[in-house]
Write a structure and sequence with these properties.
It contains 10 helices and 17 strands. By secondary structure, it is α+β, with helices and mostly antiparallel strands.
Length: 352
Protein backbone atom coordinates (compact mmCIF):
# COMPACT_ATOMS: atom_id res chain seq x y z
CA UNK A 1 0.00 0.00 0.00
CA UNK A 2 1.45 3.38 -1.00
CA UNK A 3 1.91 6.20 1.50
CA UNK A 4 -0.95 8.35 0.14
CA UNK A 5 -3.41 5.48 0.50
CA UNK A 6 -2.12 4.54 3.93
CA UNK A 7 -2.33 8.15 5.16
CA UNK A 8 -5.93 8.32 3.94
CA UNK A 9 -6.79 5.04 5.64
CA UNK A 10 -5.30 6.22 8.94
CA UNK A 11 -7.15 9.55 8.78
CA UNK A 12 -10.40 7.76 7.95
CA UNK A 13 -10.02 5.32 10.84
CA UNK A 14 -9.25 8.07 13.34
CA UNK A 15 -12.09 10.40 12.23
CA UNK A 16 -15.07 10.10 14.60
CA UNK A 17 -18.12 8.57 12.90
CA UNK A 18 -20.58 6.74 15.17
CA UNK A 19 -23.77 5.74 13.39
CA UNK A 20 -25.79 8.84 12.60
CA UNK A 21 -22.78 11.10 13.17
CA UNK A 22 -20.54 10.08 10.27
CA UNK A 23 -19.90 13.59 8.91
CA UNK A 24 -16.15 13.92 9.69
CA UNK A 25 -15.30 10.59 8.04
CA UNK A 26 -17.75 11.17 5.18
CA UNK A 27 -16.11 14.51 4.36
CA UNK A 28 -12.68 12.86 4.23
CA UNK A 29 -14.04 10.18 1.90
CA UNK A 30 -15.69 12.73 -0.42
CA UNK A 31 -12.57 14.90 -0.59
CA UNK A 32 -10.44 11.86 -1.41
CA UNK A 33 -12.49 10.61 -4.38
CA UNK A 34 -14.06 13.78 -5.79
CA UNK A 35 -11.37 14.64 -8.35
CA UNK A 36 -11.44 11.12 -9.84
CA UNK A 37 -15.17 10.53 -10.32
CA UNK A 38 -17.73 11.93 -12.75
CA UNK A 39 -20.40 12.72 -10.17
CA UNK A 40 -20.45 13.03 -6.39
CA UNK A 41 -23.72 13.11 -4.46
CA UNK A 42 -24.35 13.50 -0.73
CA UNK A 43 -27.86 12.54 0.35
CA UNK A 44 -30.01 13.56 3.30
CA UNK A 45 -28.92 10.57 5.41
CA UNK A 46 -25.22 11.24 4.93
CA UNK A 47 -24.46 8.59 2.31
CA UNK A 48 -21.80 9.66 -0.19
CA UNK A 49 -22.44 8.40 -3.73
CA UNK A 50 -19.57 8.53 -6.24
CA UNK A 51 -20.32 7.76 -9.90
CA UNK A 52 -18.17 6.65 -12.83
CA UNK A 53 -19.45 6.43 -16.43
CA UNK A 54 -22.95 7.68 -15.51
CA UNK A 55 -24.40 7.35 -19.02
CA UNK A 56 -23.96 3.58 -19.16
CA UNK A 57 -27.19 1.65 -18.83
CA UNK A 58 -26.00 -1.15 -16.52
CA UNK A 59 -25.51 0.14 -12.96
CA UNK A 60 -23.23 -1.64 -10.53
CA UNK A 61 -23.09 -0.53 -6.88
CA UNK A 62 -20.21 -0.89 -4.43
CA UNK A 63 -20.97 -0.26 -0.75
CA UNK A 64 -18.71 0.09 2.28
CA UNK A 65 -20.21 1.47 5.47
CA UNK A 66 -18.38 4.39 7.03
CA UNK A 67 -20.11 4.39 10.43
CA UNK A 68 -18.70 2.82 13.58
CA UNK A 69 -20.02 1.60 16.91
CA UNK A 70 -19.99 4.02 19.82
CA UNK A 71 -21.83 5.35 22.85
CA UNK A 72 -24.33 8.15 23.55
CA UNK A 73 -24.93 10.25 26.65
CA UNK A 74 -28.24 9.34 28.30
CA UNK A 75 -27.81 10.82 31.80
CA UNK A 76 -25.61 13.21 33.77
CA UNK A 77 -25.79 12.74 37.55
CA UNK A 78 -25.55 15.43 40.23
CA UNK A 79 -21.81 14.85 40.65
CA UNK A 80 -21.14 15.38 36.95
CA UNK A 81 -20.62 11.73 36.00
CA UNK A 82 -21.97 10.64 32.64
CA UNK A 83 -23.97 7.50 31.84
CA UNK A 84 -24.41 6.12 28.35
CA UNK A 85 -26.12 3.66 26.02
CA UNK A 86 -24.53 1.85 23.10
CA UNK A 87 -24.70 2.86 19.44
CA UNK A 88 -24.37 -0.56 17.84
CA UNK A 89 -23.08 -3.44 19.93
CA UNK A 90 -19.97 -4.07 22.01
CA UNK A 91 -18.91 -5.99 25.10
CA UNK A 92 -19.24 -3.59 28.09
CA UNK A 93 -16.21 -5.22 29.74
CA UNK A 94 -14.03 -3.75 26.99
CA UNK A 95 -15.01 -0.22 28.00
CA UNK A 96 -13.53 -0.24 31.49
CA UNK A 97 -10.40 1.90 31.72
CA UNK A 98 -10.76 3.39 28.24
CA UNK A 99 -10.22 7.00 27.26
CA UNK A 100 -13.14 8.44 25.27
CA UNK A 101 -13.89 11.46 23.10
CA UNK A 102 -17.34 13.01 23.37
CA UNK A 103 -18.44 14.70 20.14
CA UNK A 104 -20.10 18.03 20.95
CA UNK A 105 -21.15 21.08 18.95
CA UNK A 106 -18.09 22.87 20.33
CA UNK A 107 -15.60 20.09 19.58
CA UNK A 108 -14.28 16.95 21.28
CA UNK A 109 -14.45 16.62 25.07
CA UNK A 110 -12.09 14.07 26.60
CA UNK A 111 -13.14 11.67 29.31
CA UNK A 112 -12.30 8.34 30.93
CA UNK A 113 -14.40 5.33 31.84
CA UNK A 114 -13.74 4.70 35.51
CA UNK A 115 -14.13 1.72 37.80
CA UNK A 116 -13.70 1.09 41.51
CA UNK A 117 -10.12 0.09 42.35
CA UNK A 118 -9.63 -3.66 42.69
CA UNK A 119 -8.34 -3.12 46.26
CA UNK A 120 -11.83 -1.89 47.26
CA UNK A 121 -13.78 -4.73 45.66
CA UNK A 122 -15.27 -7.62 47.55
CA UNK A 123 -14.49 -11.10 46.18
CA UNK A 124 -17.96 -11.43 44.59
CA UNK A 125 -17.60 -8.00 42.93
CA UNK A 126 -14.41 -9.09 41.17
CA UNK A 127 -16.22 -12.03 39.59
CA UNK A 128 -19.26 -10.03 38.53
CA UNK A 129 -19.64 -9.22 34.84
CA UNK A 130 -19.54 -5.62 33.67
CA UNK A 131 -22.90 -4.19 32.55
CA UNK A 132 -23.68 -0.84 30.92
CA UNK A 133 -25.41 0.18 34.19
CA UNK A 134 -21.98 -0.02 35.88
CA UNK A 135 -20.24 2.12 33.26
CA UNK A 136 -19.69 5.83 33.87
CA UNK A 137 -17.60 8.52 32.19
CA UNK A 138 -15.56 11.06 34.15
CA UNK A 139 -14.80 14.33 32.32
CA UNK A 140 -13.34 16.00 35.40
CA UNK A 141 -16.47 18.04 36.11
CA UNK A 142 -17.17 19.12 39.69
CA UNK A 143 -20.93 18.70 39.38
CA UNK A 144 -23.85 18.36 36.95
CA UNK A 145 -24.00 22.06 36.14
CA UNK A 146 -20.32 22.16 35.18
CA UNK A 147 -20.65 19.01 33.08
CA UNK A 148 -23.67 20.46 31.25
CA UNK A 149 -21.60 23.44 30.15
CA UNK A 150 -19.39 21.04 28.19
CA UNK A 151 -21.67 18.18 27.07
CA UNK A 152 -25.35 17.48 26.68
CA UNK A 153 -27.77 14.58 26.51
CA UNK A 154 -27.51 12.82 23.14
CA UNK A 155 -23.87 13.64 22.44
CA UNK A 156 -22.20 10.64 20.74
CA UNK A 157 -18.94 9.14 22.01
CA UNK A 158 -16.05 7.15 20.55
CA UNK A 159 -13.18 5.27 22.20
CA UNK A 160 -10.10 7.50 21.99
CA UNK A 161 -7.44 5.19 20.48
CA UNK A 162 -4.92 5.78 17.71
CA UNK A 163 -4.42 3.73 14.57
CA UNK A 164 -1.05 1.96 14.61
CA UNK A 165 0.98 -0.53 12.59
CA UNK A 166 1.54 -3.61 14.75
CA UNK A 167 4.11 -5.31 12.53
CA UNK A 168 4.76 -5.65 8.82
CA UNK A 169 1.33 -5.13 7.16
CA UNK A 170 -0.82 -5.65 10.28
CA UNK A 171 -2.74 -2.56 11.38
CA UNK A 172 -4.63 -2.11 14.67
CA UNK A 173 -7.43 0.42 15.15
CA UNK A 174 -10.99 0.85 16.25
CA UNK A 175 -13.58 1.06 13.46
CA UNK A 176 -11.87 -1.06 10.79
CA UNK A 177 -15.44 -2.39 10.77
CA UNK A 178 -16.10 -1.03 8.31
CA UNK A 179 -13.94 1.92 7.36
CA UNK A 180 -11.62 -0.69 5.86
CA UNK A 181 -14.47 -1.47 3.46
CA UNK A 182 -15.22 2.19 2.76
CA UNK A 183 -11.49 2.64 2.07
CA UNK A 184 -11.51 -0.26 -0.41
CA UNK A 185 -14.50 1.25 -2.24
CA UNK A 186 -12.71 4.62 -2.51
CA UNK A 187 -9.48 3.02 -3.76
CA UNK A 188 -11.41 0.91 -6.28
CA UNK A 189 -13.20 3.97 -7.64
CA UNK A 190 -9.87 5.76 -8.07
CA UNK A 191 -8.38 2.73 -9.85
CA UNK A 192 -11.41 2.34 -12.12
CA UNK A 193 -11.27 6.03 -13.05
CA UNK A 194 -8.17 5.15 -15.11
CA UNK A 195 -9.99 2.35 -16.98
CA UNK A 196 -12.42 2.32 -19.90
CA UNK A 197 -15.63 0.98 -18.36
CA UNK A 198 -18.52 -0.77 -20.07
CA UNK A 199 -20.84 -0.13 -17.12
CA UNK A 200 -21.73 2.61 -14.67
CA UNK A 201 -20.00 1.97 -11.33
CA UNK A 202 -21.42 3.67 -8.25
CA UNK A 203 -19.35 3.60 -5.08
CA UNK A 204 -21.18 4.43 -1.87
CA UNK A 205 -19.81 5.17 1.59
CA UNK A 206 -22.95 4.11 3.43
CA UNK A 207 -24.10 5.26 6.86
CA UNK A 208 -25.89 3.69 9.83
CA UNK A 209 -25.07 0.08 8.96
CA UNK A 210 -24.47 -0.73 12.62
CA UNK A 211 -28.04 0.23 13.52
CA UNK A 212 -29.87 -1.64 10.76
CA UNK A 213 -28.27 -1.20 7.30
CA UNK A 214 -30.17 2.05 7.01
CA UNK A 215 -27.81 3.90 4.65
CA UNK A 216 -27.54 0.93 2.31
CA UNK A 217 -31.32 0.60 2.17
CA UNK A 218 -31.84 4.22 1.14
CA UNK A 219 -28.82 4.55 -1.16
CA UNK A 220 -29.59 1.29 -2.98
CA UNK A 221 -33.15 2.51 -3.52
CA UNK A 222 -31.78 5.78 -4.90
CA UNK A 223 -29.16 4.13 -7.13
CA UNK A 224 -31.42 1.24 -8.25
CA UNK A 225 -28.51 -0.99 -9.32
CA UNK A 226 -28.78 -4.12 -11.44
CA UNK A 227 -26.05 -5.64 -9.29
CA UNK A 228 -23.87 -4.70 -6.36
CA UNK A 229 -21.16 -5.82 -3.98
CA UNK A 230 -20.83 -4.91 -0.32
CA UNK A 231 -17.30 -4.66 1.07
CA UNK A 232 -17.15 -5.40 4.79
CA UNK A 233 -15.03 -7.18 7.37
CA UNK A 234 -15.47 -10.76 8.54
CA UNK A 235 -14.32 -12.81 11.51
CA UNK A 236 -10.75 -14.05 11.33
CA UNK A 237 -10.31 -17.49 12.85
CA UNK A 238 -6.53 -17.35 13.30
CA UNK A 239 -6.47 -16.34 16.98
CA UNK A 240 -7.25 -18.17 20.25
CA UNK A 241 -10.81 -19.00 21.31
CA UNK A 242 -12.24 -19.18 17.79
CA UNK A 243 -13.73 -22.23 16.12
CA UNK A 244 -13.22 -22.52 12.33
CA UNK A 245 -16.01 -25.12 12.30
CA UNK A 246 -18.40 -22.27 13.10
CA UNK A 247 -16.79 -19.24 11.44
CA UNK A 248 -14.95 -20.86 8.55
CA UNK A 249 -11.19 -20.85 8.17
CA UNK A 250 -10.16 -17.23 7.65
CA UNK A 251 -6.63 -15.90 8.11
CA UNK A 252 -5.11 -12.43 7.98
CA UNK A 253 -2.85 -11.92 4.97
CA UNK A 254 -4.38 -14.73 2.92
CA UNK A 255 -6.56 -12.46 0.82
CA UNK A 256 -10.12 -11.14 0.72
CA UNK A 257 -12.93 -13.52 1.62
CA UNK A 258 -15.58 -14.52 -0.91
CA UNK A 259 -18.84 -16.05 0.26
CA UNK A 260 -21.41 -18.61 -0.81
CA UNK A 261 -25.01 -18.61 0.39
CA UNK A 262 -28.52 -17.28 -0.20
CA UNK A 263 -27.43 -13.63 0.14
CA UNK A 264 -24.98 -14.10 -2.74
CA UNK A 265 -25.95 -14.31 -6.41
CA UNK A 266 -24.42 -17.59 -7.71
CA UNK A 267 -23.46 -16.12 -11.08
CA UNK A 268 -21.61 -13.23 -9.44
CA UNK A 269 -19.98 -15.67 -7.02
CA UNK A 270 -18.75 -17.74 -9.97
CA UNK A 271 -17.44 -14.72 -11.92
CA UNK A 272 -15.59 -13.30 -8.91
CA UNK A 273 -13.91 -16.66 -8.30
CA UNK A 274 -13.01 -16.93 -11.97
CA UNK A 275 -11.32 -13.49 -11.94
CA UNK A 276 -9.51 -14.22 -8.66
CA UNK A 277 -8.09 -17.45 -10.05
CA UNK A 278 -7.25 -16.04 -13.49
CA UNK A 279 -5.40 -13.03 -12.03
CA UNK A 280 -3.81 -15.11 -9.25
CA UNK A 281 -5.30 -12.88 -6.54
CA UNK A 282 -5.13 -14.55 -3.10
CA UNK A 283 -8.60 -15.24 -1.78
CA UNK A 284 -10.51 -17.27 0.80
CA UNK A 285 -14.00 -18.77 0.83
CA UNK A 286 -16.66 -19.15 3.52
CA UNK A 287 -20.24 -20.41 3.68
CA UNK A 288 -23.03 -17.99 4.66
CA UNK A 289 -26.22 -20.04 5.12
CA UNK A 290 -28.20 -17.03 6.38
CA UNK A 291 -28.45 -13.33 5.47
CA UNK A 292 -25.00 -11.92 6.07
CA UNK A 293 -25.95 -8.92 8.23
CA UNK A 294 -24.10 -6.62 5.82
CA UNK A 295 -25.05 -4.04 3.21
CA UNK A 296 -25.32 -6.98 0.78
CA UNK A 297 -28.70 -7.72 2.42
CA UNK A 298 -30.03 -4.29 1.50
CA UNK A 299 -28.65 -4.42 -2.06
CA UNK A 300 -30.18 -7.83 -2.70
CA UNK A 301 -33.74 -6.88 -1.75
CA UNK A 302 -33.75 -3.29 -3.07
CA UNK A 303 -36.88 -2.50 -5.06
CA UNK A 304 -37.44 -5.53 -7.34
CA UNK A 305 -34.15 -7.07 -6.26
CA UNK A 306 -30.53 -6.93 -7.45
CA UNK A 307 -27.74 -9.45 -7.89
CA UNK A 308 -25.74 -9.14 -4.69
CA UNK A 309 -22.22 -10.09 -3.74
CA UNK A 310 -20.02 -9.70 -0.66
CA UNK A 311 -16.27 -9.41 -0.36
CA UNK A 312 -14.86 -9.33 3.15
CA UNK A 313 -11.61 -8.30 4.82
CA UNK A 314 -10.42 -10.64 7.61
CA UNK A 315 -10.66 -8.92 10.99
CA UNK A 316 -9.43 -10.01 14.39
CA UNK A 317 -11.28 -8.81 17.53
CA UNK A 318 -14.29 -7.27 15.78
CA UNK A 319 -16.24 -4.60 17.69
CA UNK A 320 -13.37 -3.90 20.05
CA UNK A 321 -11.01 -0.89 20.20
CA UNK A 322 -8.18 -3.12 18.91
CA UNK A 323 -9.42 -4.61 15.63
CA UNK A 324 -6.51 -6.01 13.59
CA UNK A 325 -6.47 -6.20 9.79
CA UNK A 326 -3.93 -6.76 7.02
CA UNK A 327 -3.07 -3.98 4.56
CA UNK A 328 -2.17 -6.66 2.03
CA UNK A 329 -5.70 -8.09 2.24
CA UNK A 330 -7.13 -4.65 1.47
CA UNK A 331 -4.80 -4.18 -1.49
CA UNK A 332 -5.87 -7.54 -2.89
CA UNK A 333 -9.51 -6.64 -2.32
CA UNK A 334 -9.04 -3.48 -4.41
CA UNK A 335 -7.26 -5.49 -7.09
CA UNK A 336 -10.03 -8.10 -7.28
CA UNK A 337 -12.81 -5.51 -7.51
CA UNK A 338 -10.92 -3.45 -10.07
CA UNK A 339 -10.22 -6.46 -12.31
CA UNK A 340 -13.79 -7.73 -11.99
CA UNK A 341 -15.48 -4.41 -12.77
CA UNK A 342 -13.05 -3.32 -15.50
CA UNK A 343 -13.80 -6.60 -17.33
CA UNK A 344 -17.56 -6.49 -16.69
CA UNK A 345 -19.51 -6.55 -19.99
CA UNK A 346 -22.05 -3.84 -20.74
CA UNK A 347 -24.76 -6.41 -20.08
CA UNK A 348 -24.71 -9.51 -17.91
CA UNK A 349 -27.73 -11.62 -17.09
CA UNK A 350 -27.55 -12.41 -13.39
CA UNK A 351 -30.91 -14.13 -13.43
CA UNK A 352 -30.88 -17.70 -12.18
Amino acid sequence: MNKTSQDFLKALLEAPSPSGYEQPAAKLWRDYVKKDVDELIADVHGNTIAVLNPKAQFKFMLAGHIDEIGLMITHIDDKGYIYTAQIGGMDPALLVGQRVSIITDKGLVLGVIGRKAIHQMQADERKKGVEMDNIWIDIGAANKKEAQKRVQIGDPIIIDVQCRILHDDKMVSRATDDKAGAFVVAETMKALAKKKLNICVIGVATVQEEVGLRGAITSAYHVHPAAGIAVDVTFASDHPDTDPKKTGEVKLGKGPVLHRGPNINPIMERELLKIAKAKKIPHQLTAEPRPTGTDANAIQICRGGAAAGLISIPNRYMHTPVEVISLKDMDNCVKLLTEFLAAHPDKRDYRL
